Amino acid sequence: MPQAYWIGHIEVTNPEAYALYAQAAGPAIAAHGGKFLARATRYVQLEGNDRARNVVVLFPDLETAVACYHSEAYQAALVHARGASVRDLMVVEANE
């Protein structure tokens, strides 16, 4: 099975609340085999909407990446991000 990536583009509007999300989301992601490849690192916006925080997480496969998002632990973390950020998040399957 091909690996998959979470690709997130985030604008943090409440850093304190978002920090609670990040603290709880990390273990939920790790529990599903997720590995951060990029998280709030330098970037160059070439097209589209600019969001200052960009995240790429590698997962074993697409199904695991989607299951992580819907997991009880990740959804509990996500409560802190809602209202504290504007986010776009997608799952992209890698080419084999």
From TrEMBL:
Family matches, as Gene3D superfamilies: 3.30.70.100
InterPro entries hit by this protein: Dimeric_a/b-barrel, DUF1330
Residues that span the membrane, as ranges: none
Domain DUF1330, residue spans: 3-94
Domain of life: Bacteria
Name listed for the protein in its UniProt record: DUF1330 domain-containing protein
